[in-house]
Amino acid sequence: MALIVQKFGGTSVASTDRIKSVAKRVARWKAQGHDMIVVPSAMSGETNRLIALAREISALPDPRELDVIASTGEQVTIGLLSMALKEEGVKAKSYTGAQVRVLTDDTFTKARILRIDDEKIRRDIADGYVVVVAGFQGVDENGNITTLGRGGSDTSAVALAAALKADECQIYTDVDGVYTTDPRVEPDARKLDTITFEEMLEMASLGSKVLQIRSVEFAGKYKVKLRVLSSFQNEGEGTLITVEEDRPMEQPIISGIAFNRDEAKLTILGIPDRPSVAYQLLGPIADANIDVDMIIQNVANDETADFSFTVNRGDYTRAMDILEGAVDRLGARGVLGDNRICKVSAVGVGMRSHPGIASKMFSALGREGINIKMISTSEIKISVVVDEKYLELAVRVLHKAFGLDKAE
After folding, report:
1. Which residues contact 104 (CB under 8 A, 6 or more apart)?
2. Residue 188 falls inside a structural domain
3. How far apart are CA 135 and CA 7, in angstroms?
4. Residue 295: which domain range?
5. Which tens digit of pLDDT belongs to each residue from 262-271?
6. CATH number of residue 45's parent domain
7. Does the pTM exceed 0.90?
8. Count: domains in the chain
9. Is 215 within the bounds of a domain?
10. Which of 139, 174, 209 is the last residue of a domain?
């Protein structure tokens, strides 16, 4: 018998029929003798509908009131799922984040979990209940409802698993695991049996949409065994996300190819090559709450430099305005921008002990005539920026070059 936390995404509970299907799945686990905590998201599309309603009232909704509205989607789902479980003959009890007391900070719409009061849950589990807890939400010290940001139900589930020292946290989605890359881009993508927390964190940060990045961070920090499974298949082991030491031997050097279409590049030309110039450029960018990813500085012989960086495509116009405002102030020659680029990355813990990964990657892209505009590396990742038109070709070429295809 094990303590299992199961999280079901919006597509898994998109209708009452699907909620009934989830209840049957949970009932089977309970019948096997497991203690069960279930964390459902709002029904698919419901959070968007609620936010749209708020914006019909106010173009810039008050964040506190927006959380009050957005949190109701999960409240509906936990009630319906608890009712469905009872119809299956399973004792069930639902709780909102406030009722459990998932304590967060007071950063509305993107709060962070501080601690969880698990007393009610433990008491109910001891009494034989399946406990259904609303994902995505909590409450601050003053009793205000808070939400954790998009995808926050993943984080709710992992946090509950950590607080209760669950044997496993299972994330049910519309895919049956983590793949070597997006199968819609590369049909020969393979499902991974295991992947490390570090690799999954990189994949999530680089564009993989399987898990919310904060949930992976949380799981890695508290060593929560995390498994990705399909809501629509009753069989299969999914993908287990675990510490590196638990991986089988002889794993591939590269575990996956990640990509992000939503990239834009900006370059300010001919800035003076002197201390603090980078701060003078990026300080206003940070003040505008714009995240910067890759950064490259090229120094010329005339004591000037060209400074390039990438941002999310949605921040491109604002970032360009900031840079254009800095041209005269810094004595630069001008600004260039490109919002038709993408980022493609190779990820794998095997890079630590295998040289030559970068040269193999660059050679594969070069043979296809794909020009690299920027390069960024970490201990287990190499990312390149290329023209957006080459994204799918680059992914397929690298997937094959590193032996990730099904025919390997």
Report:
1. 111, 112, 113, 114, 138, 139, 140, 146, 148
2. no
3. 8
4. 257-401
5. 899 999 999 9
6. 3.40.1160.10
7. no
8. 2
9. no
10. 174
User: In angstroms, rounded to a whole number, what is the distance separating the alpha carbons of residues 320 and 42?
Assistant: 37
pLDDT per residue as tens digits for the range 12-54: 999 999 999 999 999 999 999 999 999 999 999 999 999 999 9
| Same domain? 30 vs 145 | yes
Handedness of CA 27, 33, 34, 36 (dihedral sign): positive
- CATH label of the domain that carries residue 308: 3.30.2130.10
183 assigned to some structural domain: no
Which residues of the chain are modeled with pLDDT < 70? 207-209, 244-252, 406-408
Interatomic CA distance for residues 315 and 317, integer angstroms = 6
Q: Which two tokens stand for residue 244?
A: 């590196």
pLDDT of residue 13: 95
pLDDT at 218: 86
